[in-house]
Amino acid sequence: MEKPDITIVGGGLAGLSTGIALAESGIDTAIVESRGKAKADIFGFLLWPPGTRSLRWLGVLPEALREGAELDSLAWFLTERTDTRIQVDLAELGAGTFLGIRPSRLESVLRDAALRAGVRILDSVDEWSLRRERATWTVRLRRGEDTTELRTPLLIGADGSGSRLRGELGLPSSRWQPRGQAIVTGVGGPLPARESRQALSATGSGGCVSLGDKASWLYSVEPEADAAADPERALRRYAELDGLDEEYAAAFDQVERAVVVRPWTVTVPRWATDGAVLMGDAAHGMLPHLGLGGSLTLEDVPLLREVAEEAVRTGDFCAARLSAFQRRRQARTAYAQRISNQWARVLCSTTPGARTARDLAMRRMARNVELASRFYRELASPSVPSLGTRMRMMML
Ligand SMILES: Cc1cc2nc3c(=O)[nH]c(=O)nc-3n(C[C@H](O)[C@H](O)[C@H](O)COP(=O)(O)OP(=O)(O)OC[C@H]3O[C@@H](n4cnc5c(N)ncnc54)[C@H](O)[C@@H]3O)c2cc1C
């Protein structure tokens, strides 16, 4: 039997990065993960400065940049008017590092760092069950033929948007997804520039993000019927736009696999209970339309470490103490969920006038790059954006 101070359920982005932070402050930490190896990549991470700041704080940003690409620019354009183009130079923006990286590469960087820090990673877990007695959890694990027990005073739920732990703890949640809309996603060949580039068309949107010298993330947001009918075709549509030259189109020829996904926004009113707290997608899963979910997950880590460290130091793991984490994170994660939902609605809206309003807003931003820059700068800052920025977003 093992007796870690903290047991994290889920060894993805949230679990591994939190494991590093806790172990480095001398907290004995174990991670319970159901997978045995990294999943095949079907998308890429565009990590905003809130995410890369945490990677720097964890000491892994230089390695992550070697495995992926620091982006130089973000571009948006309207497919029917390629002259309507918003191009933000990220060095000029001065908001911090934007990173494009394959999820499997980031996972391997974090996993190595977690092992170096002394985290015990129990992966390939086939089954686990929970019991709580006298303020201590017993987690009983089965891995193949072996069974192991962990006794731990604090559980961290980092098992993603469909979190089983959340259900076991009796913490309610609700889900929302845009009706009739799907995302087609795949990893393709390299792009000629280190950028994220998104096109908005009459029926949806599509784009590409550089993931380094060998790969890019290609995606399109489509009416569900179009996406399901021919996913490869839906992705390729954006390679054939006027704004994309042949070098970009070549990236689309090398797609490993085009997959249709329908992610959810997950709202969890209460993130903590006695002896357990949720984080990452398990607490605030969001639609990937603005690429904010992973960054906000990484941004959880320094604060959660503060709250968990204090709980371990005082031996007080009650819900009231652990809820400090939610109190300090909720405004920002709720804001990111809200604008991701709004953006998802705007992309494929069939409401009369919605597309015209979207395109007018894009044209305004294209004429006034400072407006777009301010929006990016505020999203990249660690605070909740100002009322002014929120109003401008609502007008989109
Ligand atoms: C198509 C798509 C594109 C995206 N693009 C971006 C982007 O560009 N930028 C960005 O920042 N974010 C993006 N995201 C969001 C991002 O992937 C998530 O926000 C992030 O992965 C959340 O990390 P997490 O560790 O909380 O959850 P997950 O990454 O889901 O990790 C959960 C872990 O828990 C494990 N697990 C699950 N159940 C159990 C169980 N019962 N027992 C033990 N282990 C379990 C899983 O195997 C997994 O390893 C995208 C998401 C999608 C779907």
Overview of this protein structure:
The protein has 396 residues and is of the alpha+beta class. It has 3 domains: 6-44 and 102-176 and 264-339, 3-Layer(bba) Sandwich (FAD/NAD(P)-binding domain); 71-96 and 179-261, D-Amino Acid Oxidase, Chain A, domain 2 (2-Layer Sandwich); 347-395, no CATH class. The protein is 41% helix and 26% strand. It is built from 15 helices and 21 strands. A hairpin with a 2-residue loop joins strand 10 and strand 11. The radius of gyration is 21 Å and the shape is globular. The N and C termini lie far apart (55 Å). Bound molecules: flavin-adenine dinucleotide (FAD). Flavin-adenine dinucleotide is lined by residues 9-15, 32-35, 43, 45-47, 51, 125, 158-160, 164, 183, 185, 261, 263, 280-282, 288, 291-295, 297.
Q: SSE layout and pairings?
A:
Blueprint: E1 6-9, H1 13-24, E2 29-32, E3 45-47, H2 49-57, H3 61-67, E4 69-70, E5 73-78, E6 81-89, H4 90-93, E7 99-101, H5 103-117, E8 120-122, E9 127-133, E10 136-143, E11 146-152, E12 154-157, H6 164-168, E13 174-176, E14 181-188, E15 195-200, E16 205-210, E17 216-223, H7 224-229, H8 231-236, H9 246-253, E18 259-261, E19 265-267, E20 272-273, E21 276-278, H10 280-284, H11 293-314, H12 319-347, H13 354-367, H14 369-380, H15 387-395
Parallel strand pairs: 1-2, 1-12, 2-8, 5-15, 12-21
Antiparallel strand pairs: 3-7, 4-7, 5-6, 9-10, 10-11, 13-19, 14-17, 14-18, 15-16, 16-17, 20-21
Bound molecules: flavin-adenine dinucleotide.
